[in-house]
Amino acid sequence: MNGNGTGFTTTGAGGGDSLNEIKTDIITLTRFILTEQGRYATQATGDFTLLLNSLQFAFKFISHNIRRATLVNLIGLAGATNSTGDDQKKLDVIGDEIFINAMRASGKVKVLVSEEQEEIIVFEGDGKYCVVCDPIDGSSNLDAGVSVGTIFGVYKLQPGSTGGVSDVLRAGTEMVAAGYTMYGASANLVLTTGNGVNGFTLDTALGEFILTHPDMKIPKKRSIYSVNEGNTVYWDKPTQEYFHNLKYPSEGLKPYSSRYIGSMVADMHRTLLYGGIFAYPSDSKSKNGKLRLLYECFPMAFLVEQAGGLATTGTQRILDIVPKHIHDRSGIFLGSEKEVLKVVDMYKKYEISA
Ligand SMILES: O=P(O)(O)OC[C@H]1O[C@](O)(COP(=O)(O)O)[C@@H](O)[C@@H]1O
Description:
The chain has helices spanning 29-40, 47-67, 90-106, 237-247, 264-274, 293-306, 337-349, and strands spanning 77-81, 87-89, 109-114, 121-122, 129-137, 148-156, 177-183, 187-192, 197-203, 208-213, 224-226, 257-258, 277-280, 310-312, 332-335. By secondary structure, it is of the alpha+beta class. The chain folds into 2 domains: 29-213, Fructose-1,6-Bisphosphatase, Chain A, domain 1, CATH 3.30.540.10; 224-353, D-Maltodextrin-Binding Protein, domain 2 (3-Layer(aba) Sandwich), CATH 3.40.190.80. The chain has an 8-stranded mixed sheet, sandwiched between helices. A 5-stranded mixed sheet has the order 12-11-13-15-14, sandwiched between helices. Strand 9 and strand 10 (208-213) form a beta hairpin.
């Protein structure tokens, strides 16, 4: 067991490296999950490992198609809209199909929710997991080659259930695993099963996700904010004052830096690594946010909390919310603990309660 609690070394010390620095003792995702299941899941049946194997196959297949999209005319619109009214990109449809087929083929999934599907999908068989996903998050950036990603969350089927919407209309606190794969310079999978957060990088030559970021911890504070300021006029007073204070700090303090890619996975990957705060506040009139609770907010909130950060609406912990519909949306602020606590304090100052 070494200092980073994962039991694995990524620096080579004791990792059995051969003389010329070729890493010969690499930790693949499957090896990592098998060890983790062995350590945490007393009655590990291997079902979760098989589910994760199907998930990583879907990520590799989607990554492959995104990389060659311009070459094989997979760029542009598919000519249809999805369940929440967004124009579907061709890769939204391809990513969705790849994900659905992989989850069906795993034999371990009973219920699937996808951003691209109006209703839940209930698979044949005795799968005991429910998966919620956004197959291609940030797809509005695809044609510009900006990083996009797949976001997912996993619930256990409720005891005695034969698979229905009530298996997924549950608080985020009931999720047993969550993560995202970002398709950027490389494909990065960031995963939690409730025992911390670990990051893996796809080695396309080996076709394996390799542990490269063990035991990720988000910095407690960092002067970086990430929000679409074009929406400022729609924000409520606490949100407007909060971001105003970051840009016009009191005497002697430096203003925060602004970073916004417009692809939640990419903005969250940077926030997890560097710290700071990402937000998509709700509209003060409709009280509606843009990002979907089940397959965008919950998985990211689970990861951030497991990495030592916080996730809130401003007045409520994101993971405590119980959705009423599978495509419900919510306002969200998440990231470094000290940054998010300033948002909570601002809402308290305005006495705005949940
Ligand atoms: O363009 P906006 O309004 O800033 O919204 C950007 C946000 O919307 C999203 O693109 C929504 O995701 P989808 O692409 O999955 O619909 C997020 O990735 C991103 O954070």
